[in-house]
Structures are given as C-alpha cells and as structure tokens.
C-alpha cells in the first residue's frame, strides 16, 4: 500500500503510455461521483479520445451511507480510438469510502493491480466500528493485490468549502485529471452547461476545487497515464442510448411520445418532456401502458407521428394494442429499452430477453418489423429508419435497445438533420377515387392509407378480419388474403435488405452471432482471439424481423456457429438438459428454426453487460470443446 | 409515401350534406334495439350541423354498440374492447380540426375500460361521448355488466347479479375536471337530439349516458321503464338541455336543476327511484388537456429543424 | 328435383347401409334448428353411434330472416364407430329456407348428390320477390346436382300448433328420425331434460310434432339410411369441448373460475356459473382479463385452486400476470379457447394461432407448461392433469383448446371422479423449519410452497429477481440460479414424458405432425391415404412445452415431415417468399428449432375446421411435390 | 405434494406476540419518508390486536410504498404495478380466516390501477387498504402522479403538471357499495393509529388515504402541510375515528361530521382549502362480495364428488 499523501512525487513523472484505461468514481449516493464521472468522460471525448461512460446506480432511492447497496458513480473507459463497451476490470478507481468499493469488488469490477484512490479520513473516524472496518478493508485490499493510495479527500476539500459532501467530487476530479493529463479548462465548459442556471459563482467555486485537486495530485501522486488523443475534425455529441433514441425520435419527425414511466426507459421521455415542446411536440404521460399505446395509435390514425417507449412489463401490457396495430396496419414506433425479466425482474439491469416476445408475443399471427441498434449511432439512426419503415410498410416497428445502452454514454458524430425526415406522412389532398383503404399490392402487400380529413378516403378501421374495404369479413378466403398481405410485407422488406457484414475473416472455425448492445464487447473479444490466431469472426443482426438475408450462406463458411446473448439458455454442458429439451438463447432459437444450422449459444443473465474478457474466455472454452467433440 | 403539404388546412368547398351522406353500411342490430335510434340521431345531428363527413371520426370499442362506426359514413375506428377513450384522445391530441364522437357500451366503458374512462374525464379533451348503456353485455350474449341491476339473471350469474349496479353518473362527478355529464334515453328522440346537440357544442369532454333498450336480452327491464314515463325525471334549466313541448308532454315528472350545482348533481345522480334525464352537471371552467397537447402544432419544418439543432448543441462536445 | 309430398313412398323402403352420414339442420336464427340438431346427435349417441355435433352460428345476435348471414343450426355426423371430426360435405341437409342453405353452400358444406329437405312454403309466399328467389334457387340447386325434396314444414306444423316458428324444428326432427330409424321415444328423454322446468305439457306437444313428422316421412319420403349402432356397455356423456373442460375443472378440484367474458371461451364459464355453486365453488366475473388472472393468482397464493379461461385478446391482456406466475411460481391453470386472430380477428371461428405466444409471449424468459388436448376426452382429462402439474411443478399451465372443440359435441365415456383429484394442494400443518420458500432442488428445480396460515412458512412473494428466501436479489449469480431453477422444471417434466405414439406405420414417406383439435380430421385423412397404399403416418403432440421426447428419432424414420395446422404460414409454393424469409406454421417453427429437421408445413386460416377431405387433398399434393423435387 | 387435511382450521395455540414478531427486513426507504411511520403503525396495530403473523397477508403493487410487505414479518405478496387489488380480492375470496392489508401508492392505485381500485371498492370485500399518497411517483424518480398538484414540477412535466389533481376520496364516494373512506396523515401517529384500528375493524373494504411525506422528491409540498396543522381539518363523530387529547392538541381545526351523511361527505372530500382527516364516509349496509364468494366452502370432499356426479348425470346419455 502506498500512502499517497506521504509520498511526494518526483518532480517529473514520466507518463505511462496506454491504449485504453478504465477509471471509476464511486461514492455514497448523493456525493456526486456520477457528475464528475460524466464530466471526465465528456472532457476526454472533447479531447478526441474514444470514451464509454456508464453509470453505477444503487437500487434504492436514498440508500444508507457507507453501504455496499449505496454505491453510486460512473465507470469511464477511455481509449486512443473509438471505445464501444465498458471493458473488463478497472485500472483506477476513486472511492469515497471502502464500502462502496466493495460493491464494485462484488461484481468483479477490479483485478489484481487495480489502482485505488481511497478517501483516508475513515482511519480517524470518531466511530470505532468505522475505523475497524476501514483498517480491515485496507488489509484485505493488500491481500487482493490492489495498489491503494489514500487521498485526503475531505480534508483538502474543507480547505475551500464548508460542506465537503458538496465538493469533494470536484476535488477528486481534479486529481484524476492530473493523472490523465486532462485539460482542466475544458471542464469549465462542462460545468457551465451543468450549472448554467445556478450562476457563475458556483462554477467558479467548483473550478477552484478541481484546480486544487489537480495541484495536489501533481505534487503528491506518482501516477501519470497518457491515452493519446487526436482532436476530432467533425463535431461530436456525447449521449447515452436513451438520449440518442430521443434525439433520433425528434429528427424522425416524431411529435408525440406517449408513455408511462418505467425503468430504464423513462429517461427517454424525461428528456423528451423537456425537449419536445421546444421542437413542436409533447410527451403524453398516460394512466398506464395500455392507454399510452392506444393514444399513440389514435395519433397515428389521425396522421400524426407518435412513438411509445417502455420496458418489459410495459411491453406485456401493450400486447393487445400491438396486435391491433399489426392487424389494422397502423404505423407506430415502439421502443423497448430491455431490462432484466421475467416479470418485474431486475428493473435497472440489462437483459436481451424480449426478442422472442417481440416477434411472437401476440396471440394470432402478427408479423411486424423488429430492429435492434447495435451502437449509439444506430440508436439515433434507427429511429429515423423505424419511422420511415413504419409509414412505408404501414406497420408497427419495435426498436429493441437495453439498459446497457440506456446508461452507457458515448461520443458519436453529430448527425445532420434534414427537413424531409420531419415531413408528415401525408398531405391532405383528396384520396384517389376508387382506391380501397387496404388496396394490398398482390406482390408486396403494401397499400397506402387514408387519413381523417382526406376527402374520399373515409373508412372504418377495425381489428376484426376485414377485406380491402376495411369491411368486417368472415369468409375464409378474405381472412387468408389479409393474413397473406400482412406477411408479404415482411418478405418485401427482406428482399430490400443486404446480408450482414462479417467482422473478421469471411470463413473460419467459429462464427459468433449477436444482436444489440453486446456488439462492442463481442467484437473486442473476437479481435483479441484473432490476434492470437484463432479463426473466429462475428456478425451482428440489426433486423430480427424480417431477418437479414444470406445467413445460411455465411454460416456455411464456418465450422461452428453460436450466439452470445444476455438472456437465459440452458447451458451446453448443463446436466439437466439434453438435445431434446435444451432451451436455447433467443436469437439462437430463431436462427435454428430459420436456417436449420445447429446454432449453439452461450448466454447469461448477470444483470450487467458482458465484459469482453468474459466473452473471450467463453469463446476460448467453446473452441476447445468443439475441438474435443468434433474432431 | 411521404407527403408534401405540411398543413392540414382544407380549401373551403361548397357542399351541402343530406342524411344519406352520413349513412354507412346497413345496421345489423336486432330489431327494436336502442342503438338504431341513437345512430339515427347522430346522423341527423351531423346533417343539422353540416359536419364534413371526412372531418368526422367515430371511435368505439367492442360490443354491439361499438359497431356504430361501421354504420356511419365518416372516418371510424372500431378498436379494442374497453379502449375507445385512449384512441379518441390520441386522435384529438394533434387534430383540433376534427369532430370526434366516441361510442362505448356499459361493459366497454364501465368494466374493462374503467381506467381510461376515469382518466379521459379528467383529461377533458373536446369530444362527444356516448355511453350506450343497456345494462348487459349484448355482443357476448348476456353476461352481467357493472350497470346490471342486482338480482338480474345473466349467463354469468344465473342466480342473479350479486351486487347493486355501478352508477356511471356518480362516478364521473367525483372526477376532477369533469365538465359535462348528461343522461337521456334512446326512446325519446326529441330529448336525445337536444342532448346530443348540447353535448356536441360543449367545449370539452361531453359525456352522455344513454339508457339503451336491449329487447333481445333484457326485454322486461326496458319495457318497464318505457311504459312508465313517470320513472323519468326531466331536468330543466336555462343552462341545461333545452326541452320542447313534445318532450315535456311525455315527461311530466320534471324538476329545475342548475347543472353547475355540484352537490345537487350528486344528489340527483344517486337517485334510484327515478332516472333523471337532462344535464346533470356542467363545469365550464374545467382545464382542457387538448389545449396543452396542441402546443407547437404551428411550427414550420424550418423552425423544427432549427430547434432540433439547438437540442443537438446541448450534447455537442 | 323430387316433389316429396307428391311422391307417396312405397310401403317398404329398404334402408341403405352406410358407415357414416352427415346431417345438417339450418334455419333462421331463433327457429330452433340448433336444438333439434343437438337432440338428434344425443339420441344417436344414446343408440350407440359415434357422433360429432357442431353448431352453425350466425355472427350477429338477431340477424335478418331469410339471409345468408342468419344461418343457424347444427351439423351432426354419425357413424358406426367413433366419430372424431365434422367430416367433409353433408349427405343430407334440412333447410328452413333456401337463403340459409346458401350460407352452407358458400362454405363448401355441400357436394353433388347431397340430399336437401327444403321447406316448400316459399313457393307460395305472398311476396313476389321471395317466390322468385325460391324458384331461382331451386333451379340453381338442380344445376348443382343436389337432390332436393320439398317439405311442407310449416303447413304440417300448423295442423298441430298455431306459431310454427316454435314447432317446425320438432316436426323436422321427426322426419329425420324416420329417415335414420332413430328411436323416437329416446327423444322424449332429451326433451324432458331440456324443458324440465317448463312442464310436461310442453314436452308432450313437442313429442306430438316429432311423431307427426315421423309419420309424414314414413308415408311420403323414399329415403332410409341405416347407420348400424351397438348399444354401449359403459355410460357415456355427450359434451362439447367447453363442457368437457368445465367438467374436468370441477373434477380437478378447481373451485374458482375467474374470468371475463369472451367468445368462444365464455360458455365454459356459463356452465360453471351454474354448476360450481352446486359443487362448492363460484365463478368470478372480473372487470377485465387482467383482474381475472390477478384474482386467480391471489386465490392460488392463498392455497385455493382457481382457473382462468379466455381467448386471444384476453390472453394478450394476461401476459404480464402470467409472467409473474412463472417468476413467483404460482400454480394456475389457464385455458385458452383459441379463436381467429390476430387482434379481434374472427371471434367465433377456429384457429390454432396462439401456440408461439403461449410459449414466448412474455418479455424475459418465462418457461411454463403448455398442453393441448386433441380429443374431447382429453379436454376433460387434461384439466385434471393440468391442475396436478401446476401444483407439483409450481407453475402456470396453459391448456390450449379452440373454437372447434368449443362448439363440437361428442359422446365420450363417462369419467369416474375420485376424491383425491379434489384434494386441496396442502394441509395447514406447520411448515418444516428451516426450509426456504423457494428451496429449489438442484436437480429438478422443484420446491414446495408455503400457504398463508402455515406456521413457519411466512414469505413475501415477489416478481422481482429473488433468492431462495424470496428476498429481492440483484446479484448476477442469484438471477442466473433462479432462472435455471425455473428452466429445470421443464426438463424434469420432459424426462417423465413418453415419446408420442405414431398413428399408422412406424416409418414411411411422410409423417404429419399435428396438435389440438385437428386430430380427428388428420387421422382420418391419413387413414384414407394409407388405405390407398401411401406410406403416410401421423403423430400428435399433446405437450408443447416441454415437448414430448423422442421426436428426432421418430422423424428420422420418415423421408419427409410436415405439420398441418390452422394458423398462418407462408405457403411452400408462394411466390413472395424463399427459404430465407418463409414464415412457418407455429408448431413447424418449434420443431425446426428443436430438432433441426427440415419440417415443412401446410396451414390455412379459413376460420372453419379443416375437413378430412381437404387435408387428404393437400397431403396428396405434398406427396407429389416431394416426389418431384427430391427424387 | 397433495395434502391430506381438508379444512384450514388451526388448533388453538397459546402465543403472545411482541412488536418484533411483525418486523421483517430492514426498511430501505429514505430517511424521513412517511412510509416508515405507516409501517410502524401497522406493526403496532398487529401487536395490539395480537394478529397471528401467519394468518396475516400484506398485498401490494410496485412502488416505494409497495415494498411494504418485505418489511413485515407476515405473509406478503409484492405483485405487479397497479394490480394489488385483484390479488388481494383473490386472496380473500376463499379465505375468510386471513387478515388482509393492501398497500398501494398514488400511481399504483389511481393511475395504472384505476379500474381495479374502482371495482374493488364496489366488491367491498373485507380488507384494510392503505393508499400511501405522496403525490408523486417515487420509485421511478419523480414523475407526475394523478394526485400531483397542478403546476408542480416533475420529470415528465418539467413545465409543471398541466391538470389539477384527481381526488381519490371524491372518486370513491361515487362508487356503489363504497363502505369506508378515511383520510389521515403519516406524521400524526395518534390519528394514524386510530384510523388504522377503525379501518381494520370495519366489515368490508376499508380504504384509508394516508397523506405521505416524500422528503426526497417533494420536500416543499409536505413541509408546508406539516408546518401548518391548521391546514388539517379534524372530523369528529361518535361513529368516526376516535381522537384523544394528543391528537386534538395538534389539530385544533375541527368539525363534527356524521360519516353516514353522503352529501356532506362529498362536500368535505371536495374541499381543497384544507385536508379533512378522519372518517369521511361509512356505509354499514353495503353488500359484500366476499360473502357471495365464500359459498360452498364448507362442503366435504364426499359432498363435492357426489355433486360432480350429479353434474355428469346431466350429460349422460
Ligand atoms: C379483451 C377483450 N375481452 C373480451 C372481449 C369480448 N367482448 C366483446 S364485447 C364484450 C362486452 C360487450 O358489452 P357492452 O360493452 O356493454 O356492449 P353491448 O354489446 O352491450 O353494446 C365483451 C366482453 C373482447 N372482444 N376483448
Ligand atoms: C407495468 C409497469 N409499469 C411501470 C412500472 C414502473 N413503476 C414502478 S413503481 C411506479 C410508480 C410508483 O409510484 P407510486 O405508485 O405513487 O408509488 P411510490 O413510489 O410513490 O410509493 C412505476 C411507474 C412497472 N413496474 N410496471
Ligand atoms: S343484443 Fe341487445 S344490444 Fe345487441 S343488437 Fe340486440 S338488442 Fe341491441
Ligand atoms: S423517494 Fe420518497 S416515497 Fe420513495 S422512499 Fe424516498 S422519500 Fe419515500
Ligand atoms: Mg351493454
Ligand atoms: Mg406515490
């Protein structure tokens, strides 16, 4: 253990050059570790580093202090080039007490050698129990081979302000900025954004703390890391997935977000509630999720462009209306920010468990478009695409994101919004005489839809089986024809899609298939194995319904195909199942049925994102296993 | 598939509408069903007010009564059981130009639709709402509805319904922002028409409970009420539903009632010795959520793109 | 055309011996064709014939008279041995007017040569339009090669009673009884059951009409068919599928049926509403389907045995609570009487469209038991099994029946109810100390559950991720463990199941796989082809989740495997799809994913049961197709 | 897995319960959260009445308030958001022997749970219902609830809530069979206890709306009410909530109110200048659906088998 304060650093510490580094700030809830973590991420992005910032959130609203349950903060992974996942173990952790640090240890966020900057004041706490806990922890940390530096966090903060809980985060930020050579004047800009309304004085007092931390670290800490960055040419925005979705929604011309609060989807509407009125729309908070989608469907029927956003339990409630939207062909974008299921499950945690229910959740045949962005950029872009597809294919479109996206922040190129994205679905000129409201094209299944107000377009939308005139019809042939038309639309879209791009070699031993927010981690794992010479590639599906074409051909070029997903499957090696009963991961299930390829899977439900190192280990294990069983 | 014109303004057209312009498919209700009279009344109302059929939307749920839109020659939305209200509210949200009628049944509104009904009353968005209350589930063949009388036989309560009926009027009066509650009967065309007219003119959520005959499943219940007009209590007031001689001749049991008198409204609504018909309650000061929802409707595409860019500025590093 | 009344029959008409015959009664709604159809079926059953009776129901409550939309009645198929489906075209139809007959012609219920007994009075109707319609129809019928006999239905009835609408059905019944040599005294018993409360006089007046019809036919109609029957040894009950479900529910000890009305499920609860109070239970009609299942879950949590029953749109609304029941392991039997979907769809019509949503409808992983009876007997038996499995496996069990079962009536052996079927799930003796409320067995995933009132068993049920103590738990391992335990239960059940029995040869060209109410028709079609020497067999799955074991082994013995289902799939020969995009029938999809066998399918959504002849034709076509493409 | 004993009768045990017998996991609400006081009061009530913990079930939905069951050491059911009522009614249906508490929040009860709430009031099954009304969605981090004040900032209405709050008391009074409606505040332990006690003793659905502090999200709203006790109007009546000196000392603003006076109850419920605390309404004659539901509970297995055989007879040919 190093006693940081007591070890004057040599004047010139030569920075260690690193490709990427993972930094965490953890504190009790309310001590502001989240704020400074975000600022650190934003400043790094501004300087041109790749960055991924993810929140550490306690399960309770006001958890007890100095408790594992109360850990609150941020993990920031920065790198020379783009960073697309939260990485493996942390390289450096700033902890405001040893208990919150334990919550990170519990989830495996640390490794041997991790540098810990730990508030030192607990050693002299008036409560004996606290002193003991702290001493025991220090001993334990030494055994775990962490590099601990004690920080006089509160003591130094108190030199500048009277309530250290309102400032030690800034001082700590200063320390970390010194370690990573961050430009602290860039912090000013971030603080100005944050405290715009609260006035210059607050910004200044915070900057003073940052500077103080910075100077202290320069004098007392022998730690310097350099993550080379190149200033960007194009403007970037730093957003989490929910913000990207919200911005994408506005750019898509969506003017109504009809929702009911649910974690982790709510923050999409929090931002939209503030922003939509500024761009000419509003958020409707309905009395429940059923009403939320019903209201959105009403909007869409009336020619306006709505969305609804929710998570697992809310999706369940929307099932009936979703089927109506499919049956009556009402365009609608539904965003499902997936969380841990089933039932209330793990409300704040990540899972990819809603794929099969998105495809097959509704009684009866309800073909619809299902998309899953796999990057932050796609979170934005897919909203625009989804709205376009919804209108063109006259159908609901489900966009599946997840809690990993919701809380993970990343710099992405600033999108250029164009006016035609906003265009209303239709003008109100007269409906073409004699064209039926469901004039299903015999090849594509597509039809144009009339909007109330359009002369000559009058029709009565119904969820009953209906003919081209939207008249209720009980005839066998009519029912078959309507079903066929709706099914054809998916085939039509599928014909317009390109096969997905394989990441890595086009053929080899193992192909890893994924979808959604795991992309960054899976590709990083695959790249590590490739560097070692393994013939592993990966491919990501962004369209799940219809599925992108050409999969069988791609799969055929690999000896073995498997998916990696964050949802439940019976393990390949589990004793309780056999080939007859094994329950596969959700994408694997789809791929098996569609391609008849023996697609294996490795999936887990840890409630946290899959780290690249974890995936790497499992892929390595699979490679060995396949080698044993198949050669 | 994307349009060109941004606004929904309609060039003025010189058109005159006759009753046939509002008639859709042939109504398939049972002979003598009260829904027929309500349909006729709504069609006459449209004609009298010369509502453009393409600017008129009839939203309903599922039930005998909810087949209503098919029999109108306007836009219609025959949605899900119990869910007419959210759809109608959504249609209204960004379309102040449309005439909206919402048609629902006692099961549709007061059972499966309860939550949406309560909250739609509170949202108080401008529309005319018709509750076709036949005290039974008609379409699914005679199950107890919340408004079915206690002891009444039904297929789910062959021993008689165990509970006294829910009173939709009393329920609504307890909801903040409730702005217009009227009651009428399908078999008095004069009073029905006058009530619909008043409701249509109301600036907000105008709710009309229509006692509706179901001769198929509940002949007795309705016969009694129809045969004895003294069972109806006609509410009169300058602010209320205007009544003419024809109406007054039949409905001799009358009382003055100021529809802004909240407690009196409660008292009347709760009466079970008579059926009060007329305007039970009106609150012209209720807040309107549709006015809130329509903000920003006038923004041009350029303004919107500029505004979105300002949003992106917030995230730009 | 034969003018029946005018053709005195020879004294002794020799009956034609037939293996089976299909008779229909059709009238305007309210004219009682349904009543007499049912009686004819019951009497035939009583005499020892196999019988299947199915209702013909108009879509509206009181449709106009003399309209195609208004056709109401019954089809009765009787046979020497057991009859397990409604068959192909009718052999004999009694029609009260020619318009209702057209509605049967429209759905293909008639064939060349079908005998029609048609009310003659329309020829002399005061309305010219009616006379014209009638005349035109007679001409048309001749062209269609039907054998038409005119019946003086109303005229003869008027001889006995004043309102013919209240009696001509009985007279017609007498006629048909004469044709088929039915014992008319047995009719008395049926009438006595029906009119028990209305008194002896009504029974007598109806019997008089039956006798009159009988005599008239003996004198005037040259038609006699003999369907040999053997009096049964064991007592039989005649029930439709919904009644069988309701009786099974009571026999299973279910004391609460919590429901919300929905076609075609409601009749289960109509009967239970009358019967349950007699056997010590009650029907709860909730305010909606969500509340209905919530109430049932509350009952079950409190140690009572409830069920809920619904159809498509109601199932959609139950999605969220169903996931809770899976997550918190609450035993519950859910009956889904499937109807045409998606959305409101075809409320009165048959479909098998809810299989995938039953398995995958809930966001997150929600393993549960899904069963589908394939005969009327199983409709009864599976309720008892389902309740047992629900309790033993501590899980919801979905029983999928459909509108075909709901309205099809059949004689089945009278079940012998035993007391232990009724036993409450638990006594209330103390909970064993130290046993956790979710003491998941590491091998089977099973655990016993405490019931409020049990000393020492206190726990707080939750839909959040939880540990063995039912404490909310956010740890990765706990979440994984809970999921695994719930998944293991399916594997455990699967290990206890036997492979399904193949109908026909154990190997061959084509294996047809089916589930649910199509069994009778599929096996009849298969048998016809087998008689012609085709190597076709069939197999029925009654467990869909988990699936019965041994399927791969069975499939391997056939050159080609396909499913026949009443749900939507893209046709094998449809131009709009290809192997990449074809959307398969629901069971086919499951089988492909699980077995990786290239399971083909033929499925349709006609809203009516698949007739054996239709299936036979399609199988024949498939055999040709396979022969072309594969040899 | 099937049991042997048919009846649920418990042999009498001699046991004495202390407060710790009702304490479950450590409550994880924010410091100062009103839920803590309600939890304490319910635990004291159980102790005072010596309720057998294993015969007591606490049912809830989802929300901060709905974590309640975990902190009790009784049976509990922490179910779905908005769906506490149907579950609690189901528990009651065939178990007259259990003590049932239902705990819900303003979002849980008055937004997503509206339909079940309305109908549970109508079913009037015996249970004690606690609405922990903090005027906000707590668990999901500060969104508008139906009872949020107009203009109040929230994360879904950063410009202020657009509508005046729903009044749960007024809503309930409009429902047929409503039998017990009381209001109290979490920060007056004496009145809270007295109210819970009265509610528990009520033979039917006893609904208590508890104004509950959420210092985390709504410190101002609650501070104002707490600091000025004259904002509370204490209702007094021999039939009402008994009040002692301690309560009366704090609540000096008092009025007599006969809880069986329906119109007066409406008038009081609707007041927004003060918060009436006490028993707003009581109807001892309301019908009870649980009595209907419990029919046949006493039948023996032999009787049931015989009855089922009689049913089979009906179908036998
Ligand atoms: C989700 C759902 N549940 C149930 C039904 C079946 N259903 C159709 S209409 C109806 C009730 C009709 O009663 P009411 O609303 O009073 O209308 P009425 O037929 O009497 O006019 C029911 C239960 C359905 N279509 N959807
Ligand atoms: C179906 C569903 N929708 C939304 C949510 C998210 N959610 C959980 S609690 C809650 C609201 C809590 O507010 P309230 O009922 O007032 O309880 P409080 O937290 O204020 O005590 C919401 C919206 C959910 N769990 N389930
Ligand atoms: S069943 Fe009743 S409500 Fe329905 S159409 Fe017939 S009379 Fe009207
Ligand atoms: S957020 Fe509010 S309601 Fe929730 S625990 Fe904290 S103070 Fe209580
Ligand atoms: Mg009705
Ligand atoms: Mg709340």
- Report the oligomer: heterotetramer
Give the amount of beta strand of chain B, in percent: 15-25%
**H/E element string of chain B?**
HEEHEHHEHEHEHEHEHEHH
Shape of chain A: globular
Any idea what the radius of gyration of chain A is? 27 Å
- Strand ordering within the main sheet of chain B: 2-1-3-4-6-5-9-7-8
Helix content of chain A: 25-40%
Ligand inventory reads:
thiamine diphosphate, iron/sulfur cluster, magnesium ion
Count of helix runs of chain B: 11
Shape of chain B: globular
Largest sheet of chain A: 8 strands, mixed
**Strand arrangement in the largest pleated sheet of chain A:** 7-6-5-2-4-3-16-9
Instruction: Report strand % of chain A.
Output: 15-25%
Q: Greatest contact pair? A: A-C, 91 and 93 residues
The number of helical elements of chain A comes to 20
Kindly, what is the distance between the CA atoms of the first and last residues of chain A, rounded to a whole number of angstroms?
A: 50 Å
Kindly name the structural category of chain A: alpha/beta
Radius of gyration of chain B: 21 Å
Helix content of chain B: 25-40%
Low-confidence residue ranges of chain A: 4-10
Mean pLDDT of chain A: 94
Index terms:
heterotetramer; A: 631 residues; alpha/beta; 7-stranded mixed beta sheet; 23 strands; globular; B: 317 residues; 33% helix; binds iron/sulfur cluster
Briefly characterize the structure.
Chain A is α/β, with parallel strands linked by helices. Helices cover 39% and strands 18% of the residues of chain A. At the A-C interface, helix 11, helix 12, helix 16 and helix 19 of A face helix 11, helix 12, helix 16 and helix 19 of C.
What does this structure look like?
The complex is a heterotetramer, with two copies of chain A (631 residues) and two copies of chain B (317 residues). Chain A is an alpha/beta fold. Helices cover 39% and strands 18% of the residues of chain A. In chain A, strand 22, helix 19 and strand 23 form a beta-alpha-beta unit. Chain A is globular. About 1% of the residues of chain A have low confidence. Chain B is of the alpha/beta class and 317 residues long. Chain B has eleven helices and nine strands. Chain B has a nine-stranded mixed sheet with strand order 2-1-3-4-6-5-9-7-8, with helices on both faces. In chain B, helix 6 links the parallel strand 5 and strand 6. In chain B, helix 1 crosses helix 6. The interface between A and C is large, with 91 and 93 residues. Strand 17 of chain A pairs parallel with strand 2 of chain B, so a sheet runs across the interface. One thiamine diphosphate (TPP) sits at the interface of chains B and C.
